[in-house]
Known about the structure:
Blueprint: E1 2-10, H1 13-29, E2 32-40, E3 43-53, H2 56-63, H3 66-75, E4 77-86
Antiparallel strand pairs: 1-3, 1-4, 2-3
Amino acid sequence: MVYVLVDHKVKDYAKWKPVFDKSMPMVKKAGGKSGKLFHVSGEPNHVCVLLEWDTKENATKFFTSEDLKKAFQESGVIGTPMIVYLDKIEDVKI
């Protein structure tokens, strides 16, 4: 498994969220397994998405796709999202 962190700002979260929700079947078909949605505290239009994928190859293919670029434009993403591929090292006990 690999994780992908997407950090980006959007013009309007209320406009962005329905496009994000609509893309979830596309994410699942491309190998997405689960995810979590965050925003930077106090900044509702600064969104971070953490997604779990089956393979890095499938994640990379998805995040470089034209379909995703179109979804970013349609949803009002500002600038170029920061996309980071993460390999899990371990779970931490607290």
